[in-house]
Fold these 2 entries.
Entry 1:
Amino acid sequence: MIRNIIYLFNFTHVNIKRIFLGELFHGFLLALPTGMLLLVIWELFSDVPNESYLWKITGIMSLSFIVQLLVAGKIYVYTNKMTYRMCSKLRLSLGDRLQKLPLGYYKKRDPGDLASIILQDVTNVETILGHALPNIFGSIFGTFFLSLFLISTDWQMAVILLFAVPCAFLLAFAATLLMKKLSHSQIHYRNETGSRFIEYILGIRHLKVHNQTGEKFKTLEKAFSDLRKASIKLEAIPGPLILLSFVVFEFFFLLMVYVGLSRLTENTINIPVIVAFLIIGYRLYEPLKLFMVDYAVLNYMNTSLVRILDLLKAPLQGGEKTTVLESYEIEFKKVTFSYLDREILKEVSFTIPQKAMTALVGASGSGKTTIANLIARFWDVQKGAITIGQKDLNRISTESVYGMISEVFQDVYLFDDTIYHNILIGRPDAKEAEVKEVAEKAQVMEFLHQLPDGLNSRVGEGGSHLSGGQKQRISIARAILKDAPIILLDEATASLDPENEIYIQQAIQELVQEKTVVVIAHKLQTIRSADKIIVLENGKIKEEGNHDQLLKIDGLYASFWKTQQQTTGWKLAV
Amino acid sequence: MQIDKENESEKRRDSSGIGRLLVLAGERKKMLILSGLLALIHAALGLIPYVIVFYILSQLLQTGTGSIPLSWLFWASAAITGSAFLLYGSGMASHVAAFNILYDLRTKIADKLGKLPLGYVNSSSSGRFKKIISDDVERIEQFVAHGIPDVVKAIFLPLLTLGFLFSVDWRLALVSLFPLVAVILASMYSFSTPRSKELMDKYHLSLEEMNSGIVEFVRAMPVMKIFGQTASNFKKFSDTVREFEHFVGKWLDESAKVWGILMSLINNALIPLFITGLILYFNGSLLLAVFFLFLILGVGYIRVLFVLSTFGPQITMISQGLKRIDEILFDVQAHTYGSDSISADYSITFDEVGFSYHAGHPVLKKVSFTAPQNTITALVGPSGSGKSTLGQLVPRFYDVSEGAISIGNQHIAEIDEHHLMNEVGIVFQDSMMFYQSMLDNIKMGSDKTIDEVIEASRVAHCHDFIMQLPKGYDTHFGDKGVHLSGGEQQRIQLARIVLKDPKILVLDEATAFSDPENEHLIMQAFSKIIQNKTVIIIAHRLSTIINADQIIVLEQGKVDAIGEHAELLKNSHLYRKMWNAHQRAKEFEITYE
């Protein structure tokens, strides 16, 4: 934990020394009244207490009060500003990091989850560190000064008192170990509740028609009650240990009293010393108890910190800037790829000729989409290699790879902006006439007359004002404008909006001309004239060839083709 | 003061803020009273060691000997142990109460959401609801589990301490009140000024702005990366982050003054006591032991109050969450349903039905037609024509804005929800699998036998792939290694309908497109389940519905034409146009020129 915190300070270049000095001074001020108190007790025990001396001490105390009034706020501001500055830097570095991560990362993790690292986790660190640091410094110095004094007064008594510290921390440590284990399961159930609840909300229509809402939906109810059980356990089991770690102080104090009193009868100690220990003893423990509370809070913060550091240390993709290649032929050489413990591609080798159309065919889960994602370098292959124009894909920077590729997939992200600007993203320096031309080609113009402001109509958040097919056509317009040499295309996008299928098809027709095209195909009719068809089954290549060749083999492709021909013959009948 | 003001503005509910929290806590009153009582005794027992130390002190100072009975020390340790146990008991009682309250709240929210019109649930993202049920509900634990015992301690520990001190020496006790008063005054000043409130609001606003900036940044990232425009996106993001830092700096400057004063007051609370004590001692009217007692106990109780000072901002946070919870629980009205049973006639009639999701943007306008019992009615039309919406009105997911829908001759608004849902089945475009066994996913809470379930899944073509799963029908969806394709999930959805065997079926034909490789299996299942039902089919590909008993052509929310396929080809321009486009789309081939 401490290592993580120090890493954080170093990483963000925040001057920890000045914070340290400031808090050191404040810690000294915090401990001063107790120190003075000791001097007073001492003096009061002398045969003739010196009154003016005592008033002097009172004067010093008042003075230190005034000094503290003046500086406490400033030191507090400094420490906190520094932690906020550090967290700002942290947010910026995390943001920078997110830009450089493999795109696949975004497919694997929920974007809300990634955002919550920058939001929630950094905020946790921010508020906790800002509060806990001053407290911890105060406790350390307070305890340090007091123990020095006690040891010099009577080391035996002091040792008894101080012995409570390792005991308490041992107990606290055991408690945190226990808590870590239990909180693991509590967090598991908490996430479980969240997922089950999201499922409930997303599926509420389905549950409604089957009269399964509310308590009748047992899966959700069970998640709620499991969470309750785990939460109670998390409090109940480590609770006694934590309490014990506090009580330990009180017991050692009583032990000290007992030893003190028995030594008094042996005359190896005098009354003022005992009295001093009686009064100071309790004071010694107070900052320690605070420290233990802060320690627990810091532990909690550490889980956030770990998530932050994990993201900061996540591996990036290397490669150099490459703008133009001589050829855009793509080659897979014995590529193996696993995702979430599942092997999706197994030693796959094939070539995709340039300026031709290659179709990937196979049942869902056969690896078609993965191949497209690997070409776009969303992920790096684990074994084997992919080359574009003989150049290893891993040696081309991701920016350059994205620059060579346009993809039209099922999920389109539109910004809450105008249609015009959403198309312009394809090539920001394009002229207005060019945008209009691609809008025409991609059949965007076809639906513009329905919208109030034509190309300048806003699309709503995530494109909510438009139908699926209309969004698709905007994304195709983007791709045409970008004019990248390689096109990755999911053919199923067309059937997302069956009424507009014909328009999307026309848009696709415009997009693919003169490019190296890879189509993930579902309706075989569409890719009948492809130059090359690769048939996949369970992550392996089953057949390769053009339509006629594959029909002749009479294998998997031929059987796909036959069933699809049948399907179109389906008619509704009572 | 603050509670009263909010009370007036929130008349629909009993209360809000602390008041509302207390009402919530009241649901587990007994547990919490127990917790408070235990905390009180804990505080009282906790004082005993101090009292004993005081007597040891006075004994030492008066007699000069240490002849103190060891039994005192024994009692002191007994008190400490007892006090710790009581604290544990108090904490457990309040936590058990708290977690039960959270559980109740969660089930209530889920239940209410199930009863609300779909429009409300769809109006927000699922993430927002999740945040409410996880985070907002969770925060209440802080108040119930920690707040209540802590407040009891924070109030009674100083009271008990002061009581004891007054019984020993009232003059010094009076002086030791001094820092307490100062702390209360200082914090009242800092937390109640309009300026501090304004700052607090601004702080939250600034935080929210940064939050939405970050969310947008992350969401837009994949697209920005692909088009190589991360820089401008990053600039927006970094601006909000810097803005926040800047504001926090200002906020700190303001709030630090009070914090500094409070901290200094608490740390130096001894000074007045010290001065008075010295004067009295040199007067000869104060015993040394008493002086020392006050030096130990006189100001220690203030620290406990610190707990209360963090309480204020916490309550604001909790209350904001509670507001969102109460919005769901109280502000939105659930449907009211009649309780009549359904007649034996399962024809469906739309009578001049008008509907809009948002006032002023009608999706359906004066739609009238009748779907006779045991026939097939197909809805066709360009996207945005309102055909999917129309399908959703039959099970009353939304209430019509004008006109009425009846089953037989009964308005659906007068039919009990339970009854209505028993008679209506829907096949949605999106399938939904729940994290439970395949058996439960098909049964959906009904009391059908396993044989009936297997029979239904045979009809829906899912028996074969279910049997190939590691544990067959007992396989949990979502477990590691269990993967169902979109089409397989759709077929499970169909099995649900086969098993339910409703009298009325609303079917979205686009369902079939979710897994193009297996389209024909879904189509086969379709033709079986539509037998002997009143079927409304939302059609996208016209070739599938040419045999329907009647086809309703919709355009921009209005009925354009009604008739059979051949009639419409003759009479409806729109239908003809759609038919031609469909014929061409079927033949589409990507060609390279």
Entry 2:
Amino acid sequence: MTVAVVTGLGVTSPNGLGVDNFWSAARGGANAIAEIERFDASGYPAKLAGEVRGFVADEHLPSRLIPQTDRMTQLALVAADWALDDAGVRPEQWPEFDMGVVTASSSGGFEFGQGELKNLWSKGGQYVSAYQSFAWFYAVNTGQISIRHGMRGAGSVVVSGQSGGLDAIAHARRQVRKGAGLVVSGGMDGSICPWGWVAQLGSGMVSSATDENRAYLPFDLRAAGHVPAEGGAMLIVEDAQRARARGARVYGVIAGYGSTFDPKPGAGREPGLRRAIEIALADAGMEAADIDVVFADGAAIPELDSVEAAAIRDVFGAAGVPVTAPKTMTGRLCSGAAPLDVAAALLAIRDGVIPPTVNVVPADGYDLDLVTTTARNATIDAALVLARGYGGFNSAMVVCRSAD
Amino acid sequence: MTTGEITIDDLRATLRQAAGQDEATDLDGDIFDVTFADLGYDSLALLETAARIERERGIRLADSTIVEAQTPRALLAAINAQLVLA
């Protein structure tokens, strides 16, 4: 079967704009969680977020695109530009129907939508931007990337919360197997605005801590929710043979994927995460022993941490594989989180280093070999990335070193 | 509210605010008879531009009028015709 490889990365993360800045911050354990600057959060029960700072859209995008785009779309467009550049791809040289776009989204353009709702209620309908018609929409990042680069092949958006980030990359692999030459894939979210904030608080899973080093502590006895964040990553997914033929540098292979949905609450049946891991391993043709590191979902809700630790233990044995959650440095990026973890996993394979889970003191009962405090050097040929979406989505993806 | 006839410079300024400017076009050149499509503006850009002019001038333009005006000259004529009536 066609092998799908990743040949380019574009990152806009709270702890770094661009792959190099992000990776050096992640390896160094730099915490980017801080008090919200994008709006006055003093009246809200949660005041910390992982914000992408220092991003000025005008410096990267043409002025035609600025009035019609939410911040998360601006981030997505720039990350896609960087990923294409990183892959050495000049889209104008490719047949337009040979290129597709598959992104994940969990909220759409909330900040743009908030502004237009405010115009509607305070001034009237004639003050609502014509661009509201699509700027808020889940599929808008896919559409804007497609239009900007003339990518007229398969285009879709996957909306399944945080797990959508993996589901989108898996769908990109599916498109490559169907014959697409190249797919821009990943996820980007950003709704650090009052409307988006209230929506996230409604989950009941957001940490109300005020100390940025104690706010997001998955697998720790002090775990009490997560810190929301914005940003994400875009990847260039290509057919391995064609990538090789054009002399592309290959970060790694998208080797396996599995997704499941949890049973109804109270059904008394096992949650679906373990099965998602096993499906992904089987899809990759690998055994548990082939996996050198797990990038955990890291919900930081005790019950969910317990489910994840049990799934990892059941598959790999007690402390049977190094586990890390670098998102402790950024907060949870919704649909952008897993693509960022996939990028980190590919860089971990390249450099032989596992970025740390900062600030966390792992609880004994979980029996995880959690990489805490500082990065760990290790030879990594294959990594497993886990992501769970609100409401019961579970996804698992195996990425590995390319054979050649 | 702004009054008086709308000029090509007013239109240029509103286009830039509403929809930005295509890097490949010279919006400050002689654009009276260049189509909006050639200037890099699609129908949504024109609807957003027209909405701003309507708000500033207190007039209403039919969506069909806006979309059918293919050049700045045609759009200015349609707007100024409304302004005379207003």
